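Troubleshooting entry. Yesterday's outputs looked truncated, so today I'm pasting the complete records for two proteins to confirm everything comes through intact. If either block looks cut off, that's the bug. Protein one:
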Amino acid sequence: MFRILSLVLFLTGAAVAAHAADVYRYVDAQGGVHYTDTWVPGSTLIKVDHQPKASEAAAPARTAQNKPLSAGDRASTDVAKAADERAVKADVAQAQEEQCKQAKDSYTKAVASRRIIKSGSADGQREYLSEADANAYRLQLHDAMQAACGTDTK
């Protein structure tokens, strides 16, 4: 009984470890790029890295680690890794640019607004921030803009 339980746990762990190595990329409704190890509708597989099966791990003479890669295999692996790294960097840059743009827009609107409406009024009536609270809110938006865009924002 213990052996069967151990075998089931081992096989389950091996299956989870092999599946967790896949990386999927998707864009949410707001345009944000996300990476995950589980498939999401609309996502694309960008990295596959399966672990060897238990039978292959038991026979080290047959594993790929003992076989040297050919120059062509190494080159295509390097090219694929470089392309993945470029795609990730481009996605991060695009996400940072979008966050910066949203932060600038929020700050610009707050500065241009004479009065700022409080969010979440209980009775549905418009309530406005006091002048001191509005200035504190604008300062908070300015700090958020600097964090998203850097200190030299224009």
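Protein two, checking that the full record survives here as well:
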Amino acid sequence: MSPAAKKLLVHLRSLRNERNIEGMRRFGLVTRYEQLGISVSDLRKIGRPHRRDHALALELWESGVSEAMILAAVIDDPGQVTRAQMDRWVRMCDNWGQTDALCFGLFDRTPFAEAKAHAWSRRRAEFVKRSGFALMAGMAVHRKELPDEAYLRFLPVIRREAVDERNFVRKAVNWALRQIGKRNPALCRAAIAEARRIGKLDTRSARWIARDALRELE
């Protein structure tokens, strides 16, 4: 491990906060990795001097420290991220904090974002599937240059997976639908129409997704 990575890990461990760890766990941020209880806002501040350091990001991701993995997502360079890296990192995620850090600010800015969103949305693994929809949400917010057609292609996928009752999946499906709808008036109309179709599906998850999206978009 490089001196820079070792120095950052020492600094992160010096910030360990047991109270914050317990609070995170109450919000579903439970992980098999070492957990330090450092907020994402603090991680962003720590990462600011290291932005676009791809090599350092790769080291931090492999450290076995959850906050270092999130820091890797903060500092990595989307232009150097590969398809293989995206698949490997997403498979290693075991909570929504990691998936969302990757997909809302790093992976959503890569050339492979749309393809991976579609591919991951079909996966059975809970946090891989969540990543697909977090990626859609991130693209809707950050990829201003993409045409509406890219987001319209996501809507049937959102409807297809709206029946998944797992909490971290259904929340990401809902998130994607709402963010697409907030992008512009045309997509808002399309998202509202999709939400109404989803509301007719006979599952609690679909009905909740539809109600929540319509509450915000109508």
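Both blocks look complete. Sanity check on protein two: The chain is about 65% helix and 0% strand.
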